[in-house]
């Protein structure tokens, strides 16, 4: 049946011209070779022939070390792991006390509120009635307001509170830090990992590490990069911080464990790499509450009355973060990569005519 719509019945084809030229042929195959080499290099460099899976891990840490401190009005105190570890800091974290403020022999009763210039202007010479009590409660949380105005010292007055007395008065931690020797404590970090898709499991205590080796080894970037035992001072130094300075107010250090695993045959390699960095803002003038601290107390009974010694503990929290990826050869991934990179050869048909014309003009 004849076509009346001629435009729809047209068919086009490209005319192929074969040119016998050693120079042009060499240029063509050189250009194709460069593209092929680029594709192969990218495939090997990025391991595009592999299927990948991401790590699932668990972390435990065991700190060792003992310190002796001489605290004002308290005397010598020995700190072991139970004392300086503090409360649980959450998953994959551990805490070490490095400095303390001690308030000794507190008993429950009534006593003057800690003097503060902000509040003294309000209440000097005035009875702490209900309105003033509300204002004071907004400014301090030292205890429950009684509504009375009492002497703080010879020249100043403040509100009376029901609290553990005497109230903690020191605001700034001692310098240098009282537990600066924590720099020499060590921590054993045990990290178990798994790549579910490959059913592959490993831990950072490698099979070749014996018990005698673990007793003497200590992490060093150059000589012992795989040892799972770390000196706290070295961790802080690796994070480019000074332990003595950081110990005064405390802070947060991140311990990063990276697993980059190749699970292919003779190329098999799966070792942890450690890196360290500070996670909190260290500049006191740039953050309202610098460092890290918490309070705890030791209780005793004297003459039938319960007493406590209050400790405001400053310290360093170490957060262990695990990252990882494993790769293994997959014929499907290889086919997908080859198919996606064939489009690079369209560059040949686009660029070759330009190069040939340029080459002919120069000749």
UniProtKB/TrEMBL annotation:
Biological processes, Gene Ontology terms: calcium ion transmembrane transport; response to ATP
Supply one GO molecular-function term. Answer: extracellularly ATP-gated monoatomic cation channel activity
Q: Which reaction(s) does its UniProt entry say it catalyses?
A: Ca(2+)(in) = Ca(2+)(out)
Residues bearing attached sugar chains per UniProt = 184
Residues binding ATP are 62-64, 186, 293-295, 312
Q: Which InterPro entries match?
A: P2X_extracellular_dom_sf (IPR027309), P2X_purnocptor (IPR001429), P2X_receptor (IPR059116), P2X_RECEPTOR_CS (IPR053792)
Subcellular location(s) per record:
Cell membrane; Membrane
- Which protein family is named in the record? Belongs to the P2X receptor family.
The protein depicted here goes by the name P2X purinoceptor
One Pfam family in the UniProt entry: P2X_receptor
What S-S linkages are listed for this chain? 111-165, 128-159, 217-227, 261-270
Any stretches that span the bilayer, and where are they? 331-355
- Source organism, top-level taxon: Eukaryota
Q: Single GO cellular component annotation? A: plasma membrane
Supply the source organism for this entry.
Salmo trutta
Instruction: Keywords in alphabetical order, please.
Output: ATP-binding, Cell membrane, Disulfide bond, Glycoprotein, Ion channel, Ion transport, Ligand-gated ion channel, Membrane, Nucleotide-binding, Receptor, Transmembrane, Transmembrane helix, Transport
Task: Give the way it sits in the membrane.
Answer: Multi-pass membrane protein
According to its UniProt entry, the function of this protein is described as:
Receptor for ATP that acts as a ligand-gated ion channel.
């Amino acid at each position: 049946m004849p076509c009346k719509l001629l435009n729809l019945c047209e068919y086009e084809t490209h005319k192929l011209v074969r040119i016998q030229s050693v120079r042009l042929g060499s240029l063509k195959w050189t250009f194709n070779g460069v593209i092929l080499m680029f594709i192969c290099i990218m495939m090997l460099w990025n391991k595009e022939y592999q299927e990948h899976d991401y790590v699932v891990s668990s972390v435990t840490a065991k700190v060792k070390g003992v310190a002796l401190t001489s605290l004002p009005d308290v005397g010598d105190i020995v700190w072991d792991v139970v004392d300086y570890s503090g409360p649980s800091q959450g998953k994959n974290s551990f805490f070490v006390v490095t400095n303390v403020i001690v308030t000794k022999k507190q008993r429950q009763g009534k006593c003057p509120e800690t003097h503060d210039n902000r509040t003294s202007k309000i209440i000097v010479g005035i009875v702490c009635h209900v309105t003033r009590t509300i204002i004071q409660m907004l400014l301090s949380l030292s205890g429950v307001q009684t509504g009375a105005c009492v002497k703080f010292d010879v020249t100043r007055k403040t509100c009376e509170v029901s609290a553990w007395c005497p109230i903690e008065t020191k605001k700034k931690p001692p310098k240098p830090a009282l537990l600066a020797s924590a720099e020499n404590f060590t921590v054993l970090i045990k990290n178990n990992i798994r790549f579910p898709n490959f059913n592959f499991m490993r831990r950072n205590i490698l099979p070749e590490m014996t018990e005698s080796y673990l007793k003497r080894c200590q992490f060093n970037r150059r000589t012992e990069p795989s040892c799972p035992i770390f000196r706290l001072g070295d961790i802080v130094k690796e994070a480019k911080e000074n332990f003595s300075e950081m110990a005064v107010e405390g802070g947060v250090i991140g311990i990063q464990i990276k697993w980059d695993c190749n699970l292919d045959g003779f190329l098999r390699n799966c070792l942890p790499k450690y890196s360290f960095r500070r996670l909190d803002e260290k500049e006191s003038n740039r953050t309202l509450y610098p460092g890290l601290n918490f309070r705890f107390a030791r209780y005793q009974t004297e003459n039938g009355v319960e007493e406590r010694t209050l400790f405001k503990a400053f310290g360093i929290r170490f957060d262990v973060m695990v990252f990882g990826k494993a790769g293994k050869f997959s014929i499907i991934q290889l086919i997908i990569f080859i198919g996606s990179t064939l489009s690079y050869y369209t560059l040949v048909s686009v660029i070759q005519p330009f190069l040939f014309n340029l080459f002919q003009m120069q000749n």
